Amino acid sequence: MDSRRRTVAALAAAATAASLALVTTAPAHAETRTTRLISTTTATGQNAYFEGGGGSSVWFSDPGGLWRNVNGAVSSVTTADVDVEQVSSDGTRAVVRTDKPLIAGDGDASFDLYLLDAGTVPASVTLISTAGSAGDVSLGAASPDLSRIVYQGTSAYVVANGSATILGGAGSDFQLASRDATAVVYTYNGSQRRDIGGQTTDVGTTPAVAISDDGLTGYVSNGGIIRRFTAPASAASATFTTISGNGSYNGSTPDGQSVFVATPDKLVSADTDTGTDVYRFDVGSAVPVLMTGAAVTTDVATEAITPSRSLVFTDGSGPARRLLRSDATGVARDLGTGVPGQPVFAAVTTTGAVVLTGYDTNELSTGTYLVDAAGALTQLSTGGYFAGSSPDGSKVWYFTAPSPYRVYESAVPVSPPSPPADTTTPTASAKAKKRQENDGRIEVQVTCTGTEACRVTGAGTLSVTVPATRGKRKFALTAPLTLLSPGQKAVVAFKVRKKAKKAAALALRRGGRAQAVLRIAVADTSGNTRALPVKVRLR
């Protein structure tokens, strides 16, 4: 039994004899949808399991084998006991793993990978793992159309155009790949390498945790240190930039331009809670964005990242646990509003919608729901358990329990495409008197010069130097959050605490210096940021 079937069995065990009653609390927003039974051919008393979907096809299995439902017409794909690893985006093909010989040429009893093409009748069967299959073989990655497949046998291999090519050499190990499997990271002879079209690049020895769709950017992480690597396809080695020295990798965007890091460190003045928070670090910005701010009551757990650089996360534990989604600026919204019971994350779609399942106090489903990017709630099922969804969320599959399980499809109206992400850096200016009195505050005038509102924060350091002793002391400076409308200007005041003010006064009396190096951080409503440096000397 594969992991998907074990998950189904565990959930259904909690259901016992409970009925699937209609939820009495109406969702905040209801849309027209259609629901249909997928596992129509499963015999009475037998369980059906969702295996994958694509296009107009849904694949499911039961004791009779593997089946494919195309617009209501069900046909048998194979009667062999197989585990479905991935279904193609058009729903016509699937990669399966089995220790049963599906063709005469497979003479061993170990697990192999096969490609089943249900576009023909009967379905055609092709052995994928033709090389390095002395032992069990497992799928590493595959392109959505299954034209390119990476698998791990005695070594790591890439299969394209019907032929297998070894990565590195004998004994290589697959690490990860881009979503279309064109860029692959693997280890060989003690080093970690990236392969793009046969060109290899050394990406160090720290374990890779992500790679962008184009393969030119990635992230490595170990021991709390997270670094970004970049390299053209033809480069011999990658260039590294440290992102965090005390955090854990929580995900990145497909383009590799943003990475999410959980850390107990307080990196911005708005981070005032005592728990671990998640920050977003964007390429080209020196100021991280706090993604889990005022809404957080304790340590958080990242669930998913949306295409618009938003974060879906849980806050708290037990009955008090919440499911939230923060926008690109870090403002969070509770996704459980209108959902009976406790919401549990299931999936995020390419439109930014979140699919979730509600659970009552007995761990039984109150239904499957979809919250779109605007926060509108749609109920998809009454008592079903989430099984899978299409990338855009137009179709969501769920199963009913208790046994016998049945697979259903809910057709969800597709939300209009999200507008292109705003990645333009906000425009603003900052100026200050180069010499200011040591009166407990340092003033900087900030003007929001663009067409979007500005969120302004500030941080900096006051360096106090006494020439006679050649000593230097540093004191942290912060400025409160200031909100500016387009065209508005305001004075941002950095507070100089008594200890720093006293040290500065003493140094100035002795002929020393007190200089503040300030950084004004300006963010727009889309989360884009700009850092404005300012230097001020006290007198």
Automatic annotation (TrEMBL):
InterPro entries in the cross-refs: TAT_signal (IPR006311)
Record keyword Signal present: yes
Keywords recorded for this protein, A-Z: Signal
Biased segments, Low complexity type: 421-430
First and last residue of the signal peptide: 1-30
Ranges in a coiled coil: none
Region named Disordered: 412-438
Keyword field contains Transmembrane: no
Protein name per its UniProtKB record: WD40-like Beta Propeller Repeat
